[in-house]
Amino acid sequence: MSNILAVFNPPPQRELEKEETMDCVPCQVMSTMFSVGFGSYLASGKPFKYGKKEAKRGISLTEFEKRNPQWWKVTLRSFGGLLIAFGFVRGTEGWLWHKNKEYKNYKKLSNDGETQAN
């Protein structure tokens, strides 16, 4: 069944195994990088800088300020700060706190074609 059809006709519910719900190191690294990176972008205020691109499109500075009111700027910058904090919390989980956390074990293919557990 295709993924699109699965939205309208979902498969029956099933119990997930522990291995399926465990966190993995690559997932943790990617979520940390995304959170810190995008949070830094939002917190820096760069999305609200009037530049050549807006001037070229014919948007004046006053029109640009109308499209980005102060409450919107503060909200997104605050959300950026929260994303940065979440990224650091997520990134330090497992080695600074919650040290007994278990991660998924991946099997990789060795040179001779046999699978090995990491």
Note the gap between the termini. Answer: 33 Å
SS class: mainly alpha
Query: Which quaternary structure do these chains form?
Result: single chain
Low-confidence stretches: none
What integer is the average pLDDT? 88
How many helical elements?
Answer: 6
Q: Tell me the β content.
A: 5-15%
- Give the strand tally: 2
List descriptors.
single chain; 118 residues; mainly alpha; two-stranded antiparallel sheet; 6 helices; elongated
Describe the protein:
- The protein has a domain at 23-95.
- It has a two-stranded antiparallel ribbon.
- The chain is mostly helical and 118 residues long.
- The model has no long low-confidence stretch (mean pLDDT 88).
- The chain is built from six helices and two strands; from the N terminus they run ααααααββ.
- The longest helix is centred in the last third of the chain and has 23 residues, at 70-92.
- Helix 3 (25-44) packs antiparallel against helix 6 (70-92).
- It is elongated, with a radius of gyration of 22 Å.
- The two termini are 33 Å apart.
- InterPro entries: Mitochondrial_unc_protein.
- Its main location: mitochondrion.
- It is found in: Mitochondrion.
- Keywords: Mitochondrion.
Structure summarized in a few sentences:
This protein has 118 residues and is mainly alpha-helical. The protein has helices spanning 3-8, 18-21, 25-44, 52-56, 61-67, 70-92; strands at 107-109, 115-117. Helix 3 packs antiparallel against helix 6.
